[in-house]
């Protein structure tokens, strides 16, 4: 029997054997056959995927479930060769999903094409975490991600490349993803990338998590926000909020802020500065507090004998100025210390401050720490969904 046009394209690209053979082999591993106790490191690679390895059908739920299982079991990535093999495998999965997307576009199946490219972005995100930063392959994956994002310019909901006008008449670029229902006022979230990360990099990871949530997102880069004179970062973010508030498809009373890495501190400062913010995923002021606490300790040599009540008051001083619900992400890719975040949460609970703590699932391996970004993103945007729901936003 002659292979399908799609199969022929996979064969021509050299992806057919590497993708379908692995899928067929790994799908025969049942949960009852999962290895446990005393397994060899290389055997853990099969165990971590079990029956969840994604078929290249453009099914987003299956792809993300498989990636989540892989990341939770990534202690099986035990050496440079194995890591390189898994990098190639996840890149091939992403390439195959891209081909599915292109095939669906040709057939006029635009919803299926959207889902296929979201699958590709998920697979490429896993591959990026497996890549050696100095490896040229890492740049290749980044280029694939950029190309996948551009595809969304012709699909619904469209990713728009916009400009935000600033008070000094400068214009900075951002990405905007509408909620997909122009006749309904939806909530929105301003997302700030981590340091040394572009807005496109953050958008590529968030797209599969936010599409379908009836929530718009505006993605800006850390460098664009932080490279301002003191106080101007907050003004620039207020311009972003102004832009969203003026859009007819946005409910101006339900706009949140989300900062990654050092941008979590920027998100805290902005939520204090602009009381229109309805929910904040930020550091709760812990970054500034930790620096101040360390400086005082270094200068006075008395930090270790400070009264705990005084420490508690100072630790929660900034977060008390926030008038919206707060989610603090500690550990993983965050900048917040887990012990201090736990103490802050206890302080806020006692003071009846609406603050929650999230700690990403991470796995320590011989080649570094792997965070389950899928579980983290689902939790964070699930929290934003609840806090920005009608009747919930302050």
What does this 3D model show about the protein?
- This protein has 394 residues and is α/β, with parallel strands linked by helices.
- The protein has two domains: 5-153, no CATH class; 157-387, Rossmann fold (3-Layer(aba) Sandwich).
- It has 15 helices and ten strands.
- An eight-stranded mixed sheet has the order 1-2-4-3-5-6-7-8, with helices on both faces. Strands 9-10 form a two-stranded antiparallel ribbon.
- The model is unreliable at 15-53 (pLDDT under 50).
Report, as a whole number of angstroms, the end-to-end distance: 62 Å
Mean pLDDT: 79
3D shape: globular
Taking Cα atoms only, what radius of gyration do you get, to the nearest Å? 23 Å
Order of helices and strands: HHHHHHHEEEHEHHEHEHHEHEEEH
- CATH homology-level superfamily of the largest domain: Alpha/Beta hydrolase fold, catalytic domain
Structural class: alpha/beta
In short:
The protein has 394 residues and is an alpha/beta fold.
Features:
eight-stranded mixed β-sheet, two-stranded antiparallel sheet, alpha/beta, Rossmann fold, 394 residues
SSE topology:
Elements lengths: L4 H9 L2 H12 L16 H6 L10 H13 L7 H27 L3 H21 L5 H16 L8 E6 L5 E7 L8 E7 L6 H12 L5 E5 L1 H5 L5 H15 L3 E10 L3 H11 L5 E4 L3 H15 L7 H8 L10 E4 L8 H13 L4 E4 L3 E4 L2 E4 L1 H15 L7
Parallel strand pairs: 3-4, 3-5, 5-6, 6-7, 7-8
Antiparallel strand pairs: 1-2, 2-4, 9-10
């Amino acid at each position: 029997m002659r292979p399908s046009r799609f199969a022929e394209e996979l064969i021509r690209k050299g992806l057919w054997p590497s993708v379908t053979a692995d899928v067929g082999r790994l799908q025969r591993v049942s949960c009852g056959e999962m290895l446990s106790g005393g397994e060899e490191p290389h055997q853990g690679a099969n165990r971590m995927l079990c029956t969840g390895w994604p078929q290249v059908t453009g099914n987003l739920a299956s792809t993300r479930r498989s990636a989540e299982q892989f990341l939770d079991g990534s202690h099986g990535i035990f050496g440079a060769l194995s890591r390189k093999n898994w990098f190639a495998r996840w890149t091939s999965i992403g390439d195959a999903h891209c081909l599915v997307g292109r095939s669906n576009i040709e057939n006029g199946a635009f919803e299926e094409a959207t889902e296929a490219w979201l699958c590709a972005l998920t697979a490429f995100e896993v591959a990026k975490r497996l890549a050696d930063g100095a490896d040229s392959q890492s740049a290749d994956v980044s280029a694939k991600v950029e190309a996948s994002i551009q595809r969304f310019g012709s699909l619904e909901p469209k990713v728009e490349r916009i400009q935000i006008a600033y008070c000094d008449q400068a214009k900075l670029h951002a990405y905007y993803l509408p909620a997909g229902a122009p006749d309904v006022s939806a909530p929105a979230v301003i997302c700030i990338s981590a340091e040394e990360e572009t807005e496109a990099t953050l958008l590529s990871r968030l797209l599969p998590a936010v599409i379908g949530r009836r929530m718009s997102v505006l993605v800006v880069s850390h460098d664009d926000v932080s490279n301002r004179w003191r106080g101007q970062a907050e003004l620039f973010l207020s311009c972003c909020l102004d832009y969203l508030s003026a859009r007819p498809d946005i409910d101006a009373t339900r706009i949140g802020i989300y900062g990654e890495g050092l941008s979590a501190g920027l998100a805290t400062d902005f939520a204090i500065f602009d009381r229109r913010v309805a929910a904040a995923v930020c550091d709760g002021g812990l970054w500034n507090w930790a620096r101040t606490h360390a400086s005082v300790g270094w200068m006075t040599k008395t930090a270790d004998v400070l009264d705990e009540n005084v420490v508690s008051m100072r630790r929660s001083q900034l977060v008390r100025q926030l008038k919206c619900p707060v989610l603090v992400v500690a550990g993983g890719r965050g900048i917040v210390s887990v012990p201090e975040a736990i103490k802050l949460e206890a302080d806020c609970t006692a003071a009846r401050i609406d603050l929650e703590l999230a700690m990403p699932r991470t796995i320590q391996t011989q080649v570094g720490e792997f965070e389950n970004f899928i579980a983290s993103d689902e939790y964070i945007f699930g929290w934003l969904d609840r806090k920005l729901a009608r009747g919930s936003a302050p």
